[in-house]
Amino acid sequence: MKTRKHTLALMAFFIGVTNVFAQIEGDKIFKNTQILTIELTFHQTSFFDSLEANYLTAEYMKADLVLTDSTGTYSYPEVGVRLKGNSTYNHPNNKKAFKIDFNEYVSGQKHDGIKKLNFSNNFKDPSMMREKVFFDVCKAAGVLVPRSNFANVYFNGTLWGFYTVVEQIDDQFLDWAILDDDGNLFKAGDNFGGSNTPADLVYYGSTASDYTDRYELKTNEDVNDMTDLIDFMDFVNNSTSANFESQLFNKMELNEYLRSVALDNMFSNFDSYTGSARNYYMYHNMSTDKWEWVKWDGNEAFGSYPAGGGGGPGGGGNNVLTIDPDYHDADRPLLENIFASTSLYHAYLLEYCDILENYFNSSYIDPIIDSHYNLIKSSVYADNNKMYTDADFDNNISSNVSSGSGPGGGTIYGLKSFISSRVSYLEGEIDCDDIVSVEDMDKVENLELFPNPASEQITLKWENGVGLDIKILDSKGVLVYQNNPEYINSLNVDVDSWATGIYHLVFTSSNGTAKSQTFSILR
């Protein structure tokens, strides 16, 4: 199967070229894989007790910050610091996950244009790099994810631990990753600790209050309008199968979403929409009027979160090494409807096979793991607050680690062994040579248009066809309709407002093959 070219991968290339002249905000922290030094000085006595006391209220505390990256050392007075996380808060010592807000107390204060940084404590991860590797592969594969790096963190002169630094999903992320920040950005709710409010994209009615525990609006908070998200969920849940199939590509960036789902499945990353129905963002892009999917919180990738529930590694009754490509928990209507559609599921398999061939394999991922291991080894050894031993760290790069019961216990899969085992299983489940490639699909066949004459609506049906450009022109040659559908084989076009007369349909596919047909509107 030939490698496909994807919008985000191309965007990343052009942004890289542009950056010769103009840097993206955050490049000092995230451009190169490096280990930052973060030195926080708190002036309160018993500062950590205060941090813990503020955990439930998410209140920030003041601290002075000295940050060292590959470009130099920078000092910032009075940044805001607070503890964060759900399961990660159960880390058995004081090495908790936390967040820094540069301008919480000093208005406009930023580092390299960045306002906030998140610090993950590598809970349940002897390798100390699960999240970083997962995000690296996702980003390379053209999926929207936060940038990440590593850091040695000091509190009041004491080495607190080795952390993964993760970019905040906010307007600055939208600026560089999507090139649009005017729309609504929603974060999936945590639904942690037994909460029965998963961000499952189920339609619960038209009232915003029915969703406030499930989704949090992160932009345009003053307006606080969830109508667009509710309308999308209405579409997902209440459309006919034909309408869902034909219109989904108009509602969201479908290629990137299918790739995002495929990566969650391959990495058995089920603390996501696929499983727990959390840890994602949805952004309504005002430039395209489409929804875009952003991953979040990848610390349970490589099979550390059980498929189907169950409370910990190995639970849930499903072997995460042998999860089928179309696995999802119940009540995930977006995935259920995609997988129920022959054409959309085929589109998913196309993306799946492309990633399996080019990214999710030992040849691609093992060198990334080795590079990170060599970079962080001495820092991990120096971390006296980590959950696992130095031997566990070394062994978990390639092999499973077992460490008793409780949080972080059970069998934790080795990074390299997980990839090789998962690939071996998936190659036995999917014959990618039998998945028709994009290049083989681009010849349009059996084009139909009916009824003809029409009065209110016309239906277009065809076989094959990728990279389609559909144009309808009136008798004077004026363009009255244009569409670029993907992964569908039918389309309904409302014509009830069009004038009576003769119209010309022109179908062009990516290989340049064109078909035309004349029809009329009579009333």
Structural account:
The model is unreliable at 1-21 and 310-315 (pLDDT under 50). The protein is an alpha+beta fold and 523 residues long. Helix content is 28%, strand content 24%. The strands form five sheets. A seven-stranded mixed barrel has the order 1-2-3-4-5-7-6. The protein has a four-stranded antiparallel beta sheet with strand order 9-8-10-11. It has helices spanning 7-18, 27-30, 47-53, 130-140, 171-177, 227-238, 241-251, 254-266, 333-340, 342-358, 362-382, 390-396, 415-429, 438-441, and strands spanning 35-41, 61-69, 72-83, 98-101, 116-120, 148-155, 158-167, 185-188, 215-217, 280-285, 290-295, 401-402, 411-412, 445-450, 457-463, 469-474, 479-483, 490-494, 501-508, 514-521. A hairpin with a 2-residue loop joins strand 2 and strand 3. Among the domains are: 180-360, no CATH class; 440-521, Immunoglobulin-like. The protein contains 14 helices and 20 strands. The relative contact order is 0.11. Helix 11 runs antiparallel to helix 13.
Topology:
Elements (H helix, E strand, L loop, with lengths): L6 H12 L8 H4 L4 E7 L5 H7 L7 E9 L2 E12 L14 E4 L14 E5 L9 H11 L7 E8 L2 E10 L3 H7 L7 E4 L26 E3 L9 H12 L2 H11 L2 H13 L13 E6 L4 E6 L37 H8 L1 H17 L3 H21 L7 H7 L4 E2 L8 E2 L2 H15 L8 H4 L3 E6 L6 E7 L5 E6 L4 E5 L6 E5 L6 E8 L5 E8 L2
Parallel strand pairs: 1-6
Antiparallel strand pairs: 1-2, 2-3, 3-4, 4-5, 5-7, 6-7, 8-9, 8-10, 10-11, 12-13, 14-15, 15-18, 16-17, 16-19, 19-20
